[in-house]
């Protein structure tokens, strides 16, 4: 029953109807060859898989593969795809191997190391600050077994949660600020992140009262963290003063009432304001606060603990300086410019810190032992050599130093098909810090003879390990400032590998229905 006869004898419509009927008959026949999951699992190859993987994972993977074949048959029946008996047989024969590959993926970690060649030092999407060697060693040492998290080894009794790490913060402050810093009445507290630190501070010190904030600082930090909302949730009432671009000390002074609990300063860490602007210095606010008997709370945010001027970045605040200016309380993030683990630092007068420690929310926001271990390692690094903190080291590299590394790197990846040149570029700190500031840098610029820039960058991003790059003027740029030296050979191997492989869809690409 050839279609040709029908075509020669009649209309196109008849031909189509007949062809599609034949096609669906064939397809129906093929459906019957789709295996029952239970029976399929009895195949020797599948029994073997069942010995090494949880049954439910194998069942789910098998079901997905069968469903995928069914949808291909349906597509074939509709005429959208060609899927014949031979192809079905081949797919069925290959199914145990495909399922084994699926199981491999299902049992691999999804959170993976990524090589950041974007030149952006801190990206929330990429986990912000990479940890120092010492921080990693401290995590391993503390997490392997038990630890003295809340145990005083000298007395054998319950101790303050990681009290020694909080003491270390004060020691660190003392080193930064020197003899004249009056820190006798100060204490520190660690919570999960700076957002939690801020909430805890506002809730403890200002619930039921008023907090005065400049209209120029009613910001959104990112990830939906907005100052007016967090204030509202903390139970404090926001008193806005000044205007977006200009706020004076007199504006704060005029707004102070008996209900005022705090003067809040929020560091403009993720945006810049230029032109006709005015903002009192922290010291001026502190002086006002002292006259009026109202403490000043600075959300410093970036966690920067060094003078960034030394690294060529101007006008950036740091939290030791905020304490020195007399702020009664300062909050800072642990995984931005401090270069440590995600956490929030609270520093300030002991009575305030103790109030927060006994707030029930502290229990909800408290950090885990891995965080304390990593933070301690990071602070110890600052006490011996701050360049051992990766973020600080990246900041410290000159453009020439990055350029030298780019030269070696380019020579190692260059092939007749892959052109690699060195181009000047700018790194940025990012991650909600130092808005607008750039660091002169160099990048390796890749261009392939037959693979487009977008394809090449996608191949690198989906390689092992993934490499995150930037595209500029048809080239794929790798800014080595944000690539550790030990990562270079790994990145070079990953680039070579990504070019060896043909466009490969990967084991799971077909299992998406539809
Ligand atoms: C980043 C930042 C925060 C939030 O810090 P997380 O540690 O991400 O919670 C709060 N305030 C300011 C000013 C910041 O820059």
Q: Which molecules other than protein and nucleic acid are bound?
A: pyridoxal-5'-phosphate
Give the N-terminus to C-terminus distance in angstroms.
32 Å
Instruction: Assign the structural class, choosing from mainly alpha, mainly beta, alpha/beta, alpha+beta, or little secondary structure.
Output: alpha/beta
Strands of the widest sheet, in order across it, are: 4-12-11-10-9-5-8
Q: How much strand?
A: 15-25%
Number of helices: 20
Stretches where pLDDT is under 50 for at least 5 consecutive residues are: 1-15, 504-514
Global morphology: elongated
Description:
The chain has 514 residues and is of the alpha/beta class. The protein is 45% helix and 16% strand. The chain is built from 20 helices and 17 strands. The chain has helices at 3-9, 12-31, 37-40, 44-52, 55-78, 85-106, 133-143, 163-177, 194-206, 227-234, 249-255, 282-292, 319-324, 350-357, 360-365, 369-384, 390-396, 399-413, 453-461, 488-500, and strands spanning 115-116, 151-152, 157-158, 186-191, 210-214, 220-222, 225-226, 237-241, 260-266, 296-301, 329-333, 344-349, 418-428, 438-448, 467-468, 470-472, 475-479. The strands form five sheets. It has a seven-stranded mixed β-sheet with strand order 4-12-11-10-9-5-8, sandwiched between helices. Strand 2 (151-152) and strand 3 (157-158) form a beta hairpin. Helix 8 (163-177) runs parallel beside helix 16 (369-384). It is elongated. Residues 1-15 and 504-514 have low confidence and may be disordered.
């Amino acid at each position: 029953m050839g279609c040709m006869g029908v075509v020669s004898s009649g209309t196109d419509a008849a031909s189509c109807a007949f062809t599609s009927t034949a096609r669906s008959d064939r397809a129906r026949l093929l459906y019957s060859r789709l295996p029952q999951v239970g029976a399929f699992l009895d195949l020797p190859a599948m029994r073997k898989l069942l010995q090494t993987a949880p049954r439910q994972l194998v069942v789910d993977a098998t079901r997905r593969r069968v469903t995928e074949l069914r949808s291909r048959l349906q597509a074939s029946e509709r005429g959208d795809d060609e899927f014949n008996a031979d192809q079905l047989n081949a797919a069925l024969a290959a199914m145990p191997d495909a399922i084994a590959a699926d199981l491999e993926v299902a049992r691999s970690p999804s959170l993976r190391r990524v090589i950041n060649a974007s030149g952006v030092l801190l990206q929330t999407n990429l986990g912000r600050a990479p940890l120092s060697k010492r921080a990693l060693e401290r995590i391993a040492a503390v997490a392997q077994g038990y630890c003295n998290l809340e145990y005083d080894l000298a007395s054998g009794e319950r101790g303050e949660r990681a009290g020694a790490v909080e003491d270390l913060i004060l020691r660190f402050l003392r080193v930064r600020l020197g003899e004249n810093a009056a820190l006798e009445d100060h204490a520190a507290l660690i919570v999960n992140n700076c957002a939690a630190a801020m909430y805890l501070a506002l809730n403890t010190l200002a619930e039921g009262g008023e907090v005065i904030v400049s209209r120029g600082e009613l910001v959104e930090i990112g990830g939906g963290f907005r100052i007016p909302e967090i204030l509202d949730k903390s139970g404090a009432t926001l008193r806005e003063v000044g205007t977006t671009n200009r706020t004076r000390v007199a504006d704060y002074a005029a707004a102070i009432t008996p209900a005022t609990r705090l003067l809040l300063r929020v560091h403009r860490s993720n945006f810049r304001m230029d032109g006709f602007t005015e903002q009192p210095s922290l010291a001026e606010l502190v002086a006002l606060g002292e006259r009026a008997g109202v403490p000043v709370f600075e959300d410093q945010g970036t966690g920067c603990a060094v003078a960034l001027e030394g690294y060529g970045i101007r006008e950036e605040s740091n939290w030791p300086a905020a304490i020195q200016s007399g702020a009664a309380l300062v909050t800072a993030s642990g995984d931005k410019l401090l270069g440590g683990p995600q956490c929030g630092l609270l520093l300030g007068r002991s009575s305030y810190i103790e109030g927060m420690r006994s707030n029930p929310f502290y229990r909800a926001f408290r950090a885990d032992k891995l965080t304390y271990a990593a933070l301690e390692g990071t602070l110890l690094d600052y006490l011996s050599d701050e360049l051992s903190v990766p973020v600080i080291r990246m900041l410290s590299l000159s453009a020439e130093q990055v350029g030298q590394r780019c030269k070696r790197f380019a020579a190692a990846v260059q092939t007749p098909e892959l052109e690699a040149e060195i181009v000047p570029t700018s790194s940025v700190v990012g991650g909600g810090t130092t808005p607008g500031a750039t660091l002169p840098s160099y990048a390796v610029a890749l261009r392939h003879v037959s693979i487009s820039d977008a394809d090449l960058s996608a191949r690198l991003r989906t390689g092992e390990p993934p490499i995150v790059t930037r595209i500029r003027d048809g080239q794929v740029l790798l800014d080595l400032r944000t690539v550790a030296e030990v990562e270079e050979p790994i990145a070079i191997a990953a680039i070579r590998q990504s070019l060896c492989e043909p466009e490969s869809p990967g084991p799971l690409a077909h299992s998406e229905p539809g």
